[in-house]
Every structure is written in structure tokens, then in C-alpha cells.
Write a sequence for this structure.
């Protein structure tokens, strides 16, 4: 077989087709350069604003999730003189309880209602965007990297349902990341002190945020050395501010005399206990689960591969964020219970890494503008979406009328949705749940206690502003944390007077529902049916003599 060699074609400069190609190529380069200088940033910024505007109003109408109910109830109890950790069970740090207490005091929506808390969370989402974009402008001299990173975060966060959104596992780590943004965007003593204080607040909300502190300490030392100061002394200043912030954060607990109770409560989540499910096998499994989304792996790997081609300032910016990513990879595996929302911290750090990767591409000035533009569009495509799941223009417009009523909306909020990993999410029909909350607010007095015995534990005591009949917001404490305390819960129902029980008798027959026979007998002996909302029933305490007669 004979092969013939073909020579490459020689382009004739006088060839009209070749000249046209050169003109087109030059035009496309000018266009790409123009897009990178401003229009792309404007486009991404407008997309972010549109997504926030079509998400936030509707977001304020969402109901509280069971986790939120824990802290809303704790805050109401504390305000009523019922001490958390001592008289109300708890196994969490107090930061979110503080938030609900402050909102309960200041917010016109009342104790535990969703608009106040979700408004606070929506403000954090907006502040994160403002901080990231400002950091990008000051660090890189352009807003585009921060905008693309933030757009990717919105694509993730605005697709979370009510069982995943507004969780302390994004709020606590976010405050620690705020510290990193401050240190890199405005280097100096003031930013170091503020970074330490905001990080302390993050730790008070969620202690696992400590995994982000090495990255922040690295940034503090790096920026200090860059300005000709001692990195060690700067880190000490930051550490003192962090320690002071932690002391101030725990001061209410100390002043209330419940510090020993708080320390004792933490034993519930200690390694080896029933609630803490961490084992070597579980640790490995959770690590693999969070690495499954390939975009989380691709971005830091790309930064490492391209670091040598980046400008020195970009490299110096990147290292603390890479250390932060390494830290948060342990966040989910080391947490006591493998909740789905434990992946939030990795997405926060990933957002910053996306911005850094965009800047590395922009640093490659020797590459044609069209190549840089295509690369940036591909990076943006890892996170940006035109319409995240819960961006709802019509729902957001309708939300304003419902917010005026200070009650849950009639149509089911978009966020009240099932989650594949959370069987209890949106288990009860929205109309039944909404009518139940209205009923409890209107037919019980502020002194009436409520026993939430529903096996799928929707938030009840928090959004109604009623104290719990149990030493916890619901039976979730029994079914998730300490099943050996069932007799104590049942005894509370027997001794109660002005109390109603919310439960679903049909759940006794559900195969997968936790069995609570002692508690069930206490309800049937001492309480009588009063109202029904679908599966949900309200039973009120019988007169003491009548209850005794049934025994």
C-alpha cells in the first residue's frame, strides 16, 4: 500500500477568502475583548438580581422546618423563664437560639414565624453576594470573578427546599468565610479583629466552622507579611479577637447559670453515643458522597494545575481558599449525623474558588480574548442556571399579600416540598398543616402548652408561639436522640393541665414510624379528641377527674 504525503496548504495573502477570514477573526477578538471588559459582568449581575428578586419574597412565606422549630422553641422558652439545656433538652450550640430570640423581640411577625427568620437568612444570602463581589473588585480589580462565583452559589442555594435552606450549616461557615473575605479585601488590623469576631459568631452557631479557621489564619499571616509586618503578631491579634468573640458569645449562657448544663448536653452528641453515627466506614462513605458532584473536584484541581500561570496576587489569594476547601471536606464526614445539608459549607468555599479560577483565566493575557471568554463561559456553566428551582416570579408577586396577614399563604409555598433524603419533609398536606397552625393560634391561650407528637415532626410550637408540654419541642427528641426518655415525656402529659396534644393516631400502624407505646397510652388515657385536619388530630386534656376515671 502506498501512502502519499500531502503538504499543508499555503495561504495566499492576496486570496480574498483568506483576507475575509483574518477580518472575521480580528472582529471576533475585538468582540470577545469587549464582552470581557464589562458586558459579561453586567449580564451575570442582572441575572443574579433577577433570581434574588423572584426568590426572596416567596421565600419569606415558607414554613419553618423541624430543625428551625428546635431553636424557635428554645428561644421562646428562654424568654418565658424556661431555661435551655436544663429544662428544655438541647444538644446544639446556642447561636441560632440567640437569632430567634432577637427576631422574636424585634420582628413584628411574632415568635417563631417564618418571615422574620427567612428574611434574616435572605439578608445573609445578599450580604454574601455583596461581600464576594466587593472582595473580587478589591482583590482582582474587576467584579466579573466574584459575580460568576456568586451566580454559581445562587444556582445551588435557590434550589434548596425548606428542609435544607436557612440551616446553621451554611450560616455558621458563612460567617467564618466573611472573615476570610475581610482579611483579603481590606488587609489591616481592623479587618483582622472583625474577622476574628465574625468567625467567633460562626462557631457559636455551628462549631464545625472551626475547620475554616486554618485558612483564615493563613490569610492573616500572608497579608501581614505582604505589608511588611510580622505574620505571627498579626495572627495573635486575630486569635485574641476570636477568643474575645467566643467569650462574648457564650456570656448569656454563663450569666443564666446554665454553662454546666450546656456542657452536659454536649455529651449527647459525643462520639460513640446513639446520636453520633460517625464510624470509620461512615466517615469514608460521607466523604465519597460529597465528592460525587464533579464540579466540586474540577475547580480546585484546575486551580492547582494553573497556579504557576497565574499572577502572584492571584496565587496568594488562592492558597487560603484551597486550605479552606481541604478543611470543609471533613465537615460532613466528622459531623455526628449525616444530614443532607452538611454539604452547604463546601459550596460556600467552592464559590470563592470559582471566582479565583475565573481570575486565573483572565490573567492569561497572552491567550486570545475569544479563548479566555469561552473558558470563562464554561466555568460559569458549572454553577449558573437561568432559573433555579425556587425562583418563582408569580409566587413572589403573590407573596406580598400573604406577608401582610402574618400567616401562612393559602397556596402551598414552593419550598414546602419533598426531599429524596428527608422522608419527613412535607409529609403532611399543606392545607391541613396550615389550618392546624391557625387553629392552635386561635383556640389556645398563650399559656396553653402544646405536645407535638406527630411522628414526622412538622414545626408547631415555634410558629404558634406556644410553650411545649415536653422538655423538647417535639417527640423528635425521642425518635432521633434519646428514646430512653419516653417515660419522662409520658409523665409530663399525665401531670399537665392546660395542654393540647397534636398527633396522628393512624401513625401507630405505620410500619416505619417509631413506636411510642408508653406515650400513646398516656394520650389515650388523659386526652380527648377535639379537632381533625386530614391525618392530624388535636386532643385536649380531659378534666383531671375524668382522666382518673379512665384508668
Amino acid at each position: 500500500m502506498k501512502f502519499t504525503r500531502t503538504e499543508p496548504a499555503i495561504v495566499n495573502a492576496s486570496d480574498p477568502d483568506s483576507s475575509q477570514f483574518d477580518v472575521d477573526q480580528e472582529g471576533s477578538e475585538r468582540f470577545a475583548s469587549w464582552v470581557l471588559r464589562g458586558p459579561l459582568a453586567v449580564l451575570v449581575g442582572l441575572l443574579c438580581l433577577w433570581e434574588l428578586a423572584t426568590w426572596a419574597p416567596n421565600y419569606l412565606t415558607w414554613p419553618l422546618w423541624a430543625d428551625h422549630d428546635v431553636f424557635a422553641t428554645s428561644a421562646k422558652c428562654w424568654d418565658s423563664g424556661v431555661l435551655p439545656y436544663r429544662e428544655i433538652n438541647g444538644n446544639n450550640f446556642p447561636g441560632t437560639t440567640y437569632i430567634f430570640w432577637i427576631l422574636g423581640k424585634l420582628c413584628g411577625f411574632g415568635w417563631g414565624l417564618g418571615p422574620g427568620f427567612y428574611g434574616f437568612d435572605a439578608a445573609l444570602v445578599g450580604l454574601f453576594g455583596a461581600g464576594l463581589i466587593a472582595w473580587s473588585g478589591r482583590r482582582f480589580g474587576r467584579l466579573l470573578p466574584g459575580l460568576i462565583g456568586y451566580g454559581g452559589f445562587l444556582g445551588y442555594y435557590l434550589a434548596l427546599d425548606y428542609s435544607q435552606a436557612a440551616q446553621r450549616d451554611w450560616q455558621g461557615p458563612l460567617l467564618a468565610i466573611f472573615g476570610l473575605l475581610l482579611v483579603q479585601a481590606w488587609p489591616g488590623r481592623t479587618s483582622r479583629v472583625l474577622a476574628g469576631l465574625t468567625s467567633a459568631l460562626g462557631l457559636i452557631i455551628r462549631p464545625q466552622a472551626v475547620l475554616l479557621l486554618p485558612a483564615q489564619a493563613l490569610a492573616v499571616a500572608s497579608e501581614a507579611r505582604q505589608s511588611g509586618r510580622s505574620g505571627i503578631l498579626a495572627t495573635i491579634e486575630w486569635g485574641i479577637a476570636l477568643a474575645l468573640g467566643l467569650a462574648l458569645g457564650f456570656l448569656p449562657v454563663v450569666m443564666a447559670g446554665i454553662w454546666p448544663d450546656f456542657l452536659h448536653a454536649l455529651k449527647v452528641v459525643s462520639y460513640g453515643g446513639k446520636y453520633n453515627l460517625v464510624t470509620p466506614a461512615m466517615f469514608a462513605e460521607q466523604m465519597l458522597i460529597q465528592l460525587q458532584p464533579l464540579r466540586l473536584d474540577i475547580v480546585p484541581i484546575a486551580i492547582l494545575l494553573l497556579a504557576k500561570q497565574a499572577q502572584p496576587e492571584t496565587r496568594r489569594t488562592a492558597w487560603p481558599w484551597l486550605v479552606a476547601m481541604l478543611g470543609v471536606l471533613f465537615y460532613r464526614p466528622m459531623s455526628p449525623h449525616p444530614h443532607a445539608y452538611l454539604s452547604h459549607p463546601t459550596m460556600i468555599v467552592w464559590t470563592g474558588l470559582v471566582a479565583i479560577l475565573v481570575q486565573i483565566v483572565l490573567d492569561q493575557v497572552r491567550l486570545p480574548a475569544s479563548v479566555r471568554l469561552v473558558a470563562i463561559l464554561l466555568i460559569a456553566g458549572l454553577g449558573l442556571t437561568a432559573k433555579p428551582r425556587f425562583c418563582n416570579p408569580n409566587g413572589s408577586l403573590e407573596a406580598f399579600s400573604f406577608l401582610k396577614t402574618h400567616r401562612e399563604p393559602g397556596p402551598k409555598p414552593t419550598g414546602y416540598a419533598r426531599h429524596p433524603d428527608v422522608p419527613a419533609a412535607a409529609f403532611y398536606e399543606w392545607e391541613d398543616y396550615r389550618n392546624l397552625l391557625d387553629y392552635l393560634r386561635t383556640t389556645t391561650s398563650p399559656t396553653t402548652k402544646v405536645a407535638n407528637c406527630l411522628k414526622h415532626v412538622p414545626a408547631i410550637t415555634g410558629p404558634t408561639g406556644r410553650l411545649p408540654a415536653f422538655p423538647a419541642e417535639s417527640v423528635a427528641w425521642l425518635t432521633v436522640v434519646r428514646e430512653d426518655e419516653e417515660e419522662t415525656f409520658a409523665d409530663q402529659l399525665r401531670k399537665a393541665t392546660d395542654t393540647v396534644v397534636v398527633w396522628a393516631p393512624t401513625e401507630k400502624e405505620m410500619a416505619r414510624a417509631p413506636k411510642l407505646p408508653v406515650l400513646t397510652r398516656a394520650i389515650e388515657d388523659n386526652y380527648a379528641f377535639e379537632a381533625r385536619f386530614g391525618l392530624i388530630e388535636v386532643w385536649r386534656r380531659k378534666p383531671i377527674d375524668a382522666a382518673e376515671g379512665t384508668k
Remarks:
- The chain has a mean pLDDT of 89.
- The radius of gyration is 28 Å.
